[in-house]
Amino acid sequence: MPIGYILLIVVALLIVFGVAQRVLDRLRLTDRQALLFVAAIFIGGIIPDIRIGRVYFNIGGALVPFALCVYLFAKAGTAKERWRAIAASVFSGAAVFALGHFFPAEPGAMPFEINYLYGLAAGLIAYIFGRSRRSAFIGGVMGVLLGDIAQGVINASRGLTTPIRLGGAGALDVVVLSGLLAVLLAEVIGEIRERMQGGSAKKEAGLEFDDGEFVRAKEGPKDDDD
Amino acid sequence: MTTTKKLSALLLAILLAAALSPAALADDWYLAPGGYYTVSLPDGSTLFTYAGQISADDEYISSDNKRYRVVSVDDANRSAVAQYVEDVVLWEDFDEAAPQNVSAAQGRKKVGIYCSHTDESYIPGDGAEAKPEKGGILDVANMLADELNKRGVKAVTDNTSHVPHDAGAYRRSRSSAMNLMESLQPDLLLDIHRDGVPDAEEYKGSIGGRQVAKCRIVLGRSNQNVKANENTAKKMKQIADSTHPGLVKDIYIGRGSYNQDLTPNSMIIELGTHTVDKENVLESTGYLADVITKYLGVSGAAGKSPGPGGEPQIRQEAQKSPSANRSAAAAIAWTVGIVGAACLLFLLVATVNGERRQRVGNFFREVTGLGRHRDKDK
């Protein structure tokens, strides 16, 4: 079974299990909404793509994840978090584009499958920007979509008629994989940091939160939002 | 400058550099001196050459059906050493007179074909080793599909371009592979390429007095279908060895997935190299179609019409071979293992001890109806 299906099944099991509750809370999603999203990815992935000119939109692989990004963006509590999500998306897109150009063309030249690297890069970038699972998901999804769009624009500028297929592999596309891996990475890093800092009480003592989302550390060097 | 600003500046610089770099339309690093790998035996004799990345633990099944494993790699000199492992039995109980229909599915057999590196071309014939967007490799893929269709196999080619020829090519071709899988449900999914070793002699062959290009089967070992795909590749080589000796020169099993995680019975077939005459490559497609047709258990031959009702005759009822069952079991075990490990990891990371026990216990009680549901607030 492809890794994309495995990941979605794991997500569904974690939701059913109740283990993903805290992640869903941070994403402002209920269990049912999350399961509906997973189902929409599966079903949308097998529906024929929507074509506009040379751009093909796969419903499950691109439109459903994008719709969730829009939902998460709209649900963001602060303008600061929205800007962080936008920044995470742009820089994730740059990273996806750069990875495609600067890494070897042969999969065998990489120690691991490059398709996973997009999500990990997006998760790391989003986490650096905002410690936010929401930003991580948005960055993971939008990063791949923006990277594909950027490549399509460059191809068109060079006179190539290569189609732009957004999320073309449906539930198995890197768009979905990237979003899920980004959230997973943010969750793992976040939880590990929490435990290393001695738990949420100690953590929150030195940090400033706004509407449940991290803003800045109260002491120490200021970040660029000041 | 804060850390975030530094990171932002670095990423912007990477983006600009990538955008301004020349289009990567050809994977032409192999044209540089020493630009391909030479794999040798411990005694120094050359085993094979390969215009892709060689990694330790990669495996190779030679033309005389011996398995070798790469034990050391020198990337600076693009060389590697492989050791003999064992003689390979390609297909247990192979009956040359009547090959088994290894696919359990009845009805007309289907093959999906696409090209991840759509720019790949042949210098004798196309005039260049790579062409922007639509390389000569697409002609080869379409010819192979035509030959299969003549033999009663339904073959469909996805001619979508996946340029540039960079690390994103396989990500882009994943869409094409999925489209073929969803629309066709193929019994075999082929990604057609050509090699990049400069010596044409490695791929020149002759069948029935006609000049042809030899083929190499390439499998990715970084996915759960590797054993199933290896079984398929070995069986196809067995058929090729018995019907058109020399056509399939070897099988290479390297690091990477190559989208072969999408389905078992998927593989890369490299037809010739960029220095082989394209006409010879096109000639090979008919013989390769013979091999594939026999592997799928279809008796139709080129130029002959299928049986009554427009459906080709199936020689035998499908039988699941023991090796195919073992491969399926391995894939299932791999899948279950990954799912379980991922759930366990998340459970360990995202919960604390008491909560963990409670959630596992509650889930068990809800599913089985046994025991009393506990709430930690009580």
Protein described:
The complex is a heterodimer of chains A (226) and B (378). Helices cover 66% and strands 8% of the residues of chain A. Chain A has 226 residues and is mainly alpha-helical. In chain A, helix 3 packs antiparallel against helix 4 (59-75), helix 5 crosses helix 7 (133-157) and helix 6 (114-130) packs across helix 8 (174-196). The radius of gyration of chain A is 18 Å and the shape is globular. Chain A starts with a helix and ends in a 9-residue tail after the last strand. With 378 residues, chain B is of the alpha/beta class. Chain B has eight helices and 13 strands. Chain B has helices at 3-20, 123-126, 137-150, 169-184, 226-243, 278-295, 322-350, 353-368; strands at 37-40, 46-50, 59-61, 66-74, 79-87, 110-114, 154-158, 188-195, 204-207, 210-213, 215-220, 248-254, 266-273. In chain B, 48% of the residues are buried. Residues 19-31 and 301-320 of chain B have low confidence and may be disordered. The chains are: A mainly alpha (226), B alpha/beta (378). The interface between A and B is large, with 73 and 69 residues.
Write the layout of secondary structure elements.
The complex is a heterodimer of chains A (226) and B (378).
Chain A: H1 3-17, H2 21-26, H3 31-46, E1 50-52, E2 55-57, H4 59-75, H5 79-102, H6 114-130, H7 133-157, E3 164-166, H8 174-196, H9 200-205, E4 207-210, E5 213-217
Parallel strand pairs in A: 2-3
Antiparallel strand pairs in A: 1-2, 4-5
Chain B: H1 3-20, E1 37-40, E2 46-50, E3 59-61, E4 66-74, E5 79-87, E6 110-114, H2 123-126, H3 137-150, E7 154-158, H4 169-184, E8 188-195, E9 204-207, E10 210-213, E11 215-220, H5 226-243, E12 248-254, E13 266-273, H6 278-295, H7 322-350, H8 353-368
Helix pairs in contact in B: 3-6, 5-6, 5-7
